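Fluoride-specific ion channel FluC: structure, please.
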Amino acid sequence: MKDRREASSPVAGANSWQTLPAIALVALGGLVGSLLRWIAVDGAAPLTGWSGWGRPGLLAVNVLGAAVLGWLAAGASASQSRITQRHYALFGTGAMGGLTSYSALAAVVGIPRSSGDSVATAGAALGAAGYIALSLALGLVGALAGWRLGEATLTGHGRGRGQKK
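Here you go.
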């Protein structure tokens, strides 16, 4: 009888990732995650008035995605977890991979805001560097917070209700 989790971590058993069902799960998750990113970043831009590299939607999806990935990774790495390799393929690699985008971050930082304008000007370059640094720092904080939450809720190793410090 196969272990329900199929592997002790999302990267263990790499050959099983090459199966058609796993590929379909990643593709389905990526479709949903990419659509959600488009809604949050580009679709909402006309409603919020935000455009260019200062878009809060892109920052929000990257931080949220890092937190969810941290949560999933903590659960997937536990020996007794409800997070299976298929869950990780669908929600981690697929949905969160599609939702988060550091390539979109690089693109919106580098896109000129008007004809003749470039991010190469000193003020714009500093603002772009600050936005990238903020995105990375908050992403790391989100991933760590997600990991801690995953330990507490998925692995039984955290300090849950009724446990003493």
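Notes: Residues 1-9, 160-165 have pLDDT under 50 and may be disordered.
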